[in-house]
Each structure stands twice: as C-alpha cells, then as structure tokens.
Request: fold
Amino acid sequence: MAKINDNYLKLKAGYLFPEIGRRVREFAAANPEAKVIRLGIGDVTRPLAPAVLKAFHDAVDDLATTQNFAGYGPEQGYDWLINAIIDKSYKPLGVELKTEEMFISDGSKCDCANILDIFALDNVVAIGDPVYPVYNDTNVMIGRTGEADEKGYYKGVVYLPCTEENNFIPALPKEKVDIIYLCFPNNPTGTVASKAELKKWVDYANANDCVIFFDAAYEAFITNPEIPHSIYEIEGAKKCAIEFRSFSKTAGFTGVRCGLVVVPEEVMGTTSTGEKYSFNKLWLRRTTTKFNGASYPVQRAAAAVYSDEGWAQTKEIIDYYMENARIIREGLKEAGITCYGGVDAPYIWLKTPGGMSSWDFFDKLLKECNVVGTPGSGFGPSGEGFFRLSAFGHRENVIEAVERIKKNLK
Ligand SMILES: *Cc1c(COP(=O)(O)O)cnc(C)c1O
Reply:
C-alpha cells in the first residue's frame, strides 16, 4: 500500500475557523432574531476597482480573438506586469529591482508554502507567535519539525513571542536560526516595524547568514510615511531577504488570485559541499518546472492596478477600509478597551477586558453584542488574552458593531 506523508498527522486539526463557525451557528440557531455581524475573517468585501475590472473584461475579450489570443505565458509572469510593479511600487521607495528578480504567482499563500522547496530540510526556522498559521503548518507538512507540545509549539521550530511588552515586535532569536519569517504590517496584531527595527533584523540576518522571508501582504495599508513598505528599503536587505506581496488585500484579489515574490540575485545559500548558490536560480528552476503562470486576464487586471486610474481607485478602497479601522479603534477606546494596530494595518488587536481568555471574550462578544471576531489564542499561545477585529467589513455593519460594543461592554 502507498505510504502517506506522516508529517501531516502532526498537524493540529484546523481548529480556529471551524470552531468559530460552530459557535456562531449554535448561537444563531438559539437566537434566530439576532443580526450577527462578522468582523472575524480576513477577507475583503469591496468590489474590484472599475479600471481593474475593465482590464479584466478586455483581457477575456482578447481570448475570444485569433489576433489577441494568449496561451501559455512566461511561467514567472509577463514582463509588462513585473515592470509596472517595479516602476510604480518599488522605484518610488528608492528600491531598484531587475525584472528577473520578480516572480508573479497565483497568490501569496502558495508562495509562502512553495518557497520551502528550495531550502534544505535541516535549516532551522524562526516564526513569530502569534502568527499567520501558514508559516508554521507548511514547515510541519514538509517535515522540518517534530511533534507539537500541549501549547501547540512544534519541536525544532524557534518561536518568537510578540507581546504587549515588546510592542508585538519580537526580540532577535537567541539560538542559531537559518530562516526568519517576518510579517509587517502584521496579521494578526496590526503592528508595523520602523526602519530602525527592520535594520536590526537585516543586520542580524547578514551577520548570521540567515534568510528573511518578509511577508508584505498589507504594505498598501500603511498610512505613516515613516514606515517602510518593503524590506529592500533597508540597506543590505537584498543580500538576505525574500519578499512576498499579494494583490489580495491591496486590490481585492482574494477571489481573483495574484501574488508575487522578489528573490534578489544576491541572496545566497550554500550547497551541501559548501559552495555558494543563488536562491534566485533555484526559484526560477522551480517555478518553470512546477508552475505554468498566473492566468493572462488576471495578470492584465493586476497590471491595471498600476494605471493612474486604477491606482487612484484602489487607494480609495484602501481608504474605505482604513476609515473602518479608525471607527473600530476609536469606538473600542471609548468603550475602555485597550487596542493596538488599525493605523497602518486593517486589523485591530484588542486586549480582552479584565484578563478574560480569548475564547471567553469571543463568547461574550457574540452573546452580548452579536459580533464575531477572532480569538487571539488561535494564532498562537502568545495571542491568549487578545482578540482580532478586521476592518474589511461593510461600513454600516462596522458602525453598528461598534455602537453595540460601546453600549454593552462599557
Ligand atoms: C491574506 C494574507 C496573505 C495573502 O494570501 P493570498 O494567497 O495572496 O490571498 C499573505 N500573508 C498574510 C499574512 C495574509 O494575511
């Protein structure tokens, strides 16, 4: 009989969102008159920007003509999209990238998982806690870890607690690690890292021969002009960092699917015989073998985000979500609740009142306000006592949810 990949059995059952679903269904069944507002899931709600939609439609029409028909494109993405991103999104930051250093994909979740293919299994990884669960679980699946302990920490992984005490920015690891995951603006905590803080990580990575995986899925939500949008704004980062970006939150592509990875040519690893080798070459090889490119109309739609019209419309949608974030943040403060994030990120990370557990607060919020959020403990043990609200909802729902919280939780 064929053998399974046993590493999958080490995974804790996908507990967080199914458990939220179960509790909400149970509540709704018992309280059919309650209008439940969901500020839990990290999915967008606004339609695509009109200029993006038009480019998408036009590209579909291309496929209907012999003249403009597009079949297989380059596996790593079309140059017209890559160059638009470099010109509009990196050059203004003072970051120079070569076309060959950027790879277009069908989303960042896949990229974060697939990048592990080109790294040896005996690398040690450092992961934040709380964290986007994909970083942890993909390392378990590929076989880099042992079993989980009762807290949910897997053997062999170095966890970096992000707590109120360290402003949700982890301390440098004490043990020798080879790969460090960083996500700023952060999901779930909504925290951002200043240039000085990122410099600390880049210097550490270069001094200790580590590679940083920098997840910038939320860079478009940064409002403070001092906060870096890309890790390559930090000197030396091109020698040690791989950056992930996504159109999902930036341009409402969660259902359309498009992302990108930057693998600078200077990021090096060593072969088992001790020679230096470029990760860019490996990633190109992997991409051309295992992927056939993001779809043509999707890449056309993505390129339209960088047209003048598309850019302005996309910015308006982001402003809409950030106004939601402001409403939530200020409402929580009025209700006497301590909260973080929501200024340069679409997530508000609140401290549960009275030291309540994350799940107890979930139940209280659902019962007393009919509002659904996400328990912080679901993102890792250090998330206990915290709770995530998302700013991706409809405005009228956000306003009503905040009114209910102010009325019932004060
Ligand atoms: C939403 C999100 C992504 C984007 O995933 P896609 O697969 O591109 O939709 C990446 N990283 C984090 C932390 C996210 O929250």
